[in-house]
Amino acid sequence: MAFVSIRDLKVAFDGTQVLHGIDLDIARGEAVGLVGESGCGKSVTWLAALGLLPGKASVSGSVRVDGLELIGAPVRSVEKVRGARIAMI
Question: Where are the domains of the chain?
Answer without folding.
Answer: 4-81
